[in-house]
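re: ur msg from earlier - yeah i can do the magnesium ion complex, just paste it... oh wait u already did. ok heres what im feeding in:
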Amino acid sequence: MIRGMIFDLDGVLVDTARFHYLAWKRLAREWFGLDFTPADNERFKGVNREACMRILCEMAGRTLSEEDFARGMALKNDWYVQRVREMTPEDVLPGAADYVRAARAQGVRCAIGSASKNCRLVLERTGIAGLFDAVADGTVVTRAKPDPEVFLCAARMLGLPPADCVVFEDAQAGLDAARAGGMRCCAVGSPADLTGYDWICSGLNALSDTPLAPERLQDTP
Ligand code: B16
Ligand code: MG
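and the outut:
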């Protein structure tokens, strides 16, 4: 039975992916003269900041000093945070808050499992912090998805075994992390981009006809 739900933040609950994309695109252009495309950005989804910076350097064929590497990450983060500060509850993805509320009403415990160190700020700006019993994010874990650390940490915070939890994820690295942690997972996105999931939906607003519909959760093995 599903007793816990662990939600990735970026791309599942809120649309911060485009802010990350725009900030990396600017850094790629200003520092490396690279045209960073949406296809390049796929490799950055769900991956923590340091790992993203490493991928960008690899794409540019450049090795930076430790100091410049840290300066690049800080610049990107400043640009990203500027946009996050302008977020409002309207930036919550369609149906996401209602889905979490309905699951909670069925007795399901809900947590966040995000790679982001800015997770708390995003939750506060969008007004959904109070919907979650626990927050496992980039400030409490060290290993990047596809390592399962962030989801195992969330399950532990909920006081539930991984097998009783479902992870909702938009990134392949996150789906791989959920499975590595012994959890079932629901992909959020398109079957053309994602693989290795138990269920798939285009967004949390599209789950009403599936076994993950809140009113059917009690019967889901
Ligand atoms: P930050 P998620 C991830 O969030 C993003 O998908 C990824 O693009 C980003 O690099 C990562 O957070 C780190 O974010 O720079 O704010 O610490 O999808 O795991 O909620
Ligand atoms: Mg995500």
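cool cool. Residues 8, 10-12, 45-46, 170-171, 174 surround magnesium ion (ligand 2) (CB under 6 Å). ping me if u need the other ligands too
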